[in-house]
Amino acid sequence: MAISVFPVFEDFAAEIGDLDLTQAQDEAVIDAVREAFARYAVLVIPGQNLSEADHLRFARWFGPLETTIGSFRDDTQLRTSDKIADVSNLDTHDAIWGADSRQRMFQLGNRLWHTDSSFRQVPARASALYARSIAPVGGQTEFADLRAAFDALPASRQAELRPLVARHSIFHSRAKLGFSNFSEAERQALPEVRQRLVRRLPENGRESLYLASHIGGVEGMDEAAAQALVDDLCAHATQRAFRYVHRWRQGDLVIWDNRCTMHRATPFEDLRWPRDMQRATIEDVGNTVDAN
């Protein structure tokens, strides 16, 4: 049976129906999902009842999986496999974390506009986030279409941005929240990386801004000018005209294209309501500077 595609906007965000990811799918279905992903960049697949193996099998439709960052937790034990990023508010005993949890402080950075793993030498192509349980209120996720944001810029501005290279680090975004409690080993494990400020998507040739709160500078610009540029581009890219807001339902699986979107989590009462969200992250093919 063919999948059903229900766009939210003409070329951004769509809901996918008639798809049960607990079942093996033939290549025609997989190709149809990939085609929808290339067009809409954010896909919502509701009503799923996934095991971790189901979740990972789906994510592998899009490429090899990234290993999660586990070193920033309060303990070394993980609730999930190392192919799943645990973005819940739960500890290893499935109890809600404490107010002073190191993992909580780290995850507050998800409330900044960002792109997953842009701080890695090989960044993320896509993220597939599955809602095992949700808070009754709050906790939406906002997405911004960086393709449409780039298209809306004047041609002269586009030309100025194309050659620019930004410097990304997970420690830049966390410093914005005043969280700098990282060991030297953690810092050395994730050194600053260079990424293009504008990138081209190989599936369709569309150009996109490549932005994140992880940006700490732009090559060839002083710190103040670089920060002003990034702030201006982020404000432009996150206008209402370029945004989709997802209100989670238990069993939703949402996959988005990190190459051409930004996203951020919105607040909820994380010391009151358990919220079990798990993400599989798909690696890109290489660093953006090498690819362009």
Describe this structure in words.
There is one protein chain. The protein is an alpha+beta fold. Helices cover 25% and strands 24% of the residues. The chain has helices spanning 27-40, 52-59, 102-107, 146-151, 155-161, 170-175, 184-189, 223-237, 288-291; strands at 4-7, 14-17, 42-45, 84-86, 124-133, 141-145, 165-168, 193-196, 198-200, 207-209, 215-218, 243-246, 253-257, 261-265, 276-283. The strands form 4 sheets. It has a 7-stranded mixed beta sheet with strand order 1-2-3-13-5-15-4, with helices on one face. Strands 12-6-14 form a 3-stranded antiparallel beta sheet. The longest helix is centred in the last third of the chain and has 15 residues, at 223-237. The protein is globular. The termini are far apart.
What descriptors fit this protein?
single chain; 292 residues; alpha+beta; 3-stranded antiparallel sheet; 9 helices; 24% strand; globular
